[in-house]
Amino acid sequence: MCTGLYMRAGEDEGFLFGRNMDIEVHFGERIVITPRSMPLHFRCLPTVNTHHAIIGMAAVKDGYPLYADAMNEKGLCAAGLHFPGNAVYVPLETSAKDKCRVAPFELIPYLLGYCETVAEVRRLLDKTEIGDIHFSPELPNTPLHWYIVGRDGGLILETVSEGLKIYDDEFGVLTNNPPYPYHRAHMNRYVGLTASVPHFSRASESALGDTYDLGVGMVGLPGDYTSPSRFARAAILRRYADVSGSVDEKVVQTFRILGAVAPPSGCVLTRGGRHHVTRYTACMDPQARTYHVVTDQKITPLSITLTDQRCEGYELWEAHL
């Protein structure tokens, strides 16, 4: 379970990108900066020695940042969300010779290292395939789909049995299964919801008081933690959320919407009885190049800015939560 959220922030190209990481365990996550001059090694491609600096949440294994979500210094953002039963990575024996093969764990640094906009991501993906290459025998691939946003919009990337699929981001939201076309069709169930007080044809003047009218336009908004319900709830809250205030107020709105779909500990259990909980919620501010995060253990945000000084260097910069 995870939820991604893309928030436009005004009339200009400003936006915020957030995500909930819902998982049973901590995975060694920390805020990690990959500076411009740290070599990026790829399993099937040449090493890249100079690239855009990247900041995001990652586990570091053998000196390599395994990003769950990240933003580069140009304002392009990406997140991987759980996609079990649907993600299909290309087997080695069926690799296309005219494609650049990238492992799933390499995809975020690959895209953010090269690209500044979603348009550039689309062009790069035209010549890319996501191969079934494991980081190590102890770390097999996680089934994922990806949410990528920039100042020119957003896209959903899914690699399924039919091949690599790219969808325009229509709702500013991504969750988990089923594939994106299902969520797009499912949203038709909620076209009548509104933040306004609906008009009632009353049999008598005493039918309902004004106090009980408030919020009635949202009756039918799902409140459970299934992926389609979280998608719909986040998308509708995003649609009506006021983002006219300061940047700080917009960041708060992003955290509030993601908080509305975040399962508290104990409310969602795995089949093995483990607590499936929102371990962290991130909000990225590309204009300020700042990564904000709250965790299941600390509600006060930790904010790290991708300064020019941090963009330089040859080694990973890490901030533990």
Question: How would you characterize the overall build of this protein?
Answer:
The structure is a single chain. By secondary structure, the protein is α+β, with helices and mostly antiparallel strands. It is built from seven helices and 16 strands. The mean pLDDT is 90.
Short description:
This protein is an alpha+beta fold. The chain has seven helices and 16 strands. The chain has helices spanning 107-114, 118-125, 180-186, 210-213, 227-240, 247-259, 308-311; strands at residues 2-8, 15-23, 30-34, 54-61, 64-72, 77-82, 100-102, 128-130, 144-150, 153-160, 163-168, 173-174, 277-285, 290-295, 302-305, 317-319.
Helix-strand layout with pairing:
Layout: E1 2-8, E2 15-23, E3 30-34, E4 54-61, E5 64-72, E6 77-82, E7 100-102, H1 107-114, H2 118-125, E8 128-130, E9 144-150, E10 153-160, E11 163-168, E12 173-174, H3 180-186, H4 210-213, H5 227-240, H6 247-259, E13 277-285, E14 290-295, E15 302-305, H7 308-311, E16 317-319
Parallel strand pairs: 7-8
Antiparallel strand pairs: 1-2, 1-12, 2-13, 3-4, 3-16, 4-5, 5-6, 6-9, 9-10, 10-11, 13-14, 14-15
Poorly predicted ranges: none
**Sheet with most strands:** 8 strands, antiparallel
Q: What's the SSE pattern?
A: EEEEEEEHHEEEEEHHHHEEEHE
Any idea what the shape is?
Answer: globular
Number of helices: 7
Amino-to-carboxy terminus distance: 21 Å
Which bin fits the share of residues in helices? Answer: 10-25%
